[in-house]
Amino acid sequence: MNGAASRHAFGSAPAGVMQPPAVVLPDAEVFARRAARLRELAERVSSLADFLAFMGCVAQAQHQLLATGEAAWHPAPGAFDLALAHGMAPLGIHALRPNAAWQADLAALLDALELYAGERQRPLLAALREQTPAALETLADDVLEGRSGAAATRGLMPLVAAALQLAWVRLARTLPCPPERPGPEAQALCPCCGSAPLASVVHIEPQRSGVRYLHCSLCATEWHLERVKCSVCGRGGKLLYLGLEDERGKPFLPAQAEACGDCGHYLKLVPRELDARADPLADDLASLALDVALAEQGDYQRSGYNPLLIAGE
Ligand SMILES: [Zn+2]
Ligand SMILES: [Zn+2]
Predict the structure, then answer these.
(1) Where in the sequence is the domain holding 242, given as residue range(s)?
(2) pLDDT beyond 60 at 230
(3) CA distance 117 to 147
């Protein structure tokens, strides 16, 4: 670590000396940027236009509620200090689940979405309103554990996930400081809440230009992982970067699959060098064709977890 250089206020530190932050908590605009990106991708990816446009509405509703909604639970001051001081995930999903009051966020999200929902989505909103609190908790179990859930109610899981994201992003924004970066044994678990990464993203702003982070599927915290390193097995000798091309052979979307020949897994990588507005969740959804192609090919298994995507048949 070079603390002195990273605190340098005058911009004269030589390039390469600046230490990028190891863990970055979500900012207030995380859902707004995602909503804008989803709207943009809905225009570009015609085969997924309706789906991406509705997910854009979901992200917009998440943003509104993060900005103006009232949390149903307020952690006591200093509630997370002990965990932060001891390198433990302060917002662990199991520990905080009883307090997180995420069902209030779901109800608010459904109200906000009534304005945007088309004929196709109304039955989905109605079905969610009919679930008992216990049934909603079962759906949340499946979302938080990354399971595909029961076939009959699988379609309800993305909006449950959106409410859980809202609750956990709000909590992450109350932390007094980011947690420490996880050690190598837990490099693929969010240091804030313990969830799996959705994808990784390479940033372009000055303080962390060219630096790769894993992006949490639940709380949107980002933590540094060296580039050209598999997030599943930690090796880097047999990595391939696979992307989608248009009919002229040009890259179609910035998202790539970082595919590892050592362990047979891939994680989506979203390089902002290729598109400054790219978002891990939005660009992962828009590049579903890449997952389909890799599943057909059968060489690599997906490792990223996108809770807004319905898994299974
Ligand atoms: Zn997290
Ligand atoms: Zn690997």
Answers:
(1) 184-302
(2) yes
(3) 26
**How high is the mean pLDDT of the chain?**
91
Are 260 and 232 contacting, i.e. CB atoms less than 8 angstroms apart? Answer: yes
Please report which ligand is nearest the Cα atom of 236. 2
Q: What separation in Å is there between the alpha carbon of 167 and the centre of ligand 2?
A: 32
Please name which of 146, 310, 157, 287 lies closest in space to residue 216, comparing C-alpha atoms: 146
Residue 23 lies in a domain: no
> Nearest CA to 250 among 274, 232, 276, 222?
274
Shared domain check, 206 and 166 = no
User: pLDDT tens for residues 150-178?
Assistant: 999 999 999 999 999 999 999 999 999 99
Is residue 33, in this structure, part of any structural domain at all? yes
Q: What is the CATH number for 159?
A: 3.90.1670.10
- The pLDDT assigned to 186 comes to 87
Query: How many domains is the chain partitioned into structurally?
Result: 2
Tell me how far the alpha carbon of residue 293 lies from the centroid of ligand 2, in angstroms.
19
Q: Are 251 and 243 in contact (CB under 8 A)?
A: yes
The verdict on 103 and 135 lying in the same domain is: yes
**Paired sense of beta strands 222-224 and 212-216, if any:** antiparallel
Residues 30, 299: Cα–Cα separation, whole Å:
33
Measured from the alpha carbon of residue 266, the closest ligand is: 2
Phi, psi of 210 (to 5 degrees): 80, 5
C-alpha 197 – ligand 2 centre gap (Å): 14
- Domain co-membership, 159 together with 35: yes
Ligand nearest the Cα atom of residue 24: 1
What digits encode the pLDDT tens for the residues 178-211? 999 988 888 999 999 999 999 999 999 988 999 9
